Amino acid sequence: MIKTYLIQLSTPQTPSDPYDLEELKELALQVGLTPKDTFLQHGSKPTAAFGIGKGKVAELKRLIDANAIQMVVFFNELSNTQMRNLEAEWGVEVIDRTMLVLELLSQHAQSNLAKKLVAITQKRYLLPRLSAITQISDRQQGGIGLKGPGETALELNRRVLEKDISKLQKAIQKEKKVRAQNRKHRLKKSIPTISIVGYTNAGKSTLLNHFLDGASPEKHVFANDQLFATLEPKSRRIERPHIPPMVLSDTVGFISKMPDHLTQSFIATLEEIETSELILIVLDASSPFLDTHLETTHAMLDQLNVKDIPKLYVLNKMDRRKDAEDFLFYHHPYVKISLKTQMGLDALETAIIEHLFASSIDKTYLIPFSADHVQYQIKESAWIHQETQTDEGTLLHVKIPPSMLSSLKHYEV
Ligand SMILES: Nc1nc2c(ncn2[C@@H]2O[C@H](COP(=O)(O)OP(=O)(O)OP(=O)(O)O)[C@@H](O)[C@H]2O)c(=O)[nH]1
Ligand SMILES: [Mg+2]
User: Fold this and answer.
1) 3-class DSSP assignment, residue 259
2) How far does residue 368's CA lie from ligand 2's centre (Å)?
3) Which stretches does DSSP call E strand in 120-274?
4) Is 339 in the pocket of ligand 1 (CB under 6 A)?
5) pTM of the prediction?
């Protein structure tokens, strides 16, 4: 048990949100710390020496000693000097939220790509803070271990870090190329992709798994009640009756006030959203911080080139909302669902299909039995409303993309 204090400095420039410290607590718990108390400090601006004022530093020193606190986590990003000074004053390890997030990410990183992304972000973040960290690890010999990817002081040298970063960068570039290839391949085969995006823990991966119902279990993705369960986009081919196959893409969740270093690393994994036909914005409708979640998601999407892609809001976890019936949402279009009780899932599926075929046209075709390949062609791209066998062939009532119209004219009824 690592007894920890959480501190936030609120200034007119960076005002605090009631949510900030609560989420910080959640992050701390998940990393394995034991938050004992939170402190919200107001000031006109951070002081160069400590971030917070000298008086507060002294007051906290007494509390830290009296309660045998072992670590302090700052919501605000700390400079090298601030971190060093605070540690000297308090005699405990001091880290900031970015380091905490990075630690959590490194605990969760499973795949190669995710591991590399976390490693490079950690190293980039450490580089300007190097002198403080070397000093601390010299003094504490290991400390509690949140100060970086676990290198010894010897390895924590600038040249090594810089070399590591450039090596990682090359490896990430290589993986990105493979992803881009796969995407191109899909686009060429014109399989539409639907991206699932949203705040962390909203239920994105659970949604993807719902659409995989009936598929072999190894196709399912990891979903769990924790922040940053998913660290790498996962795409799955989905087969539904009456429509062509589509690809559903699960993505990394966002958090509010995402550290810049992280945004830069993870935005790279979100590029596939830019080539999707539809974006599902999944929200935890039961969260008291729904507005913050929504704002964060919009801000993240603003950094991608997705302005012209249609979006559908998916209000999940409706089972937990008391006002589920009258609850109105101010962005359109939206669907209310609960992946837990299965409420609204058929409506969601219909909404998705209607979106995908929004520009398609209702037609009826009679395909003679001798033209099997044409029937196959239609089923590869159309939404089949009705299919009847007649003496002359198969009668199909469909919604068909405009691009197919001319080649099928001959079979129109
Ligand atoms: N009560 C309730 N819980 C849900 C619902 N949908 C998902 N959950 C739970 O919410 C938790 C998070 O689900 P995930 O699918 O992992 O969420 P995510 O959006 O992929 O999260 P990250 O990958 O961490 O960004 C899991 O414990 C789910 O079981 C729902 O409709 N109601
Ligand atoms: Mg997930």
Assistant:
1) coil
2) 46
3) 193-198, 234-238, 246-250
4) yes
5) 0.85
Q: Write out pLDDT tens, residues 174-188.
A: 887 887 787 777 777
Kindly write down the DSSP assignment for every residue of 277-326, as one continuous string: SEEEEEEETT-TTHHHHHHHHHHHHHTSS-TTS-EEEEEE-GGG-TTTTT
Residue 209 Cβ contacting ligand 1 at under 6 Å: no
Contact 168, 120 (CB under 8 A): yes
- What is the C-alpha separation between 323 and 345, in angstroms, rounded? 19
* Ligand 1 in reach of 203 Cβ (< 6 A): yes
Q: Tell me, what's the pLDDT at 168?
A: 80
Res 156: pLDDT: 54
* 205 Cβ below 6 A of ligand 1: yes
The model's confidence at residue 139, banded by pLDDT at 50, 70 and 90, is very low
What is the position in ligand 1's atom list of the atom closest to the CA of 228? 24
Give the residues across from 388 on adjacent strands. Answer: 395
164 pLDDT band (50/70/90 cuts)? confident
CA–CA distance, 332 with 355 (Å, rounded to integer): 13
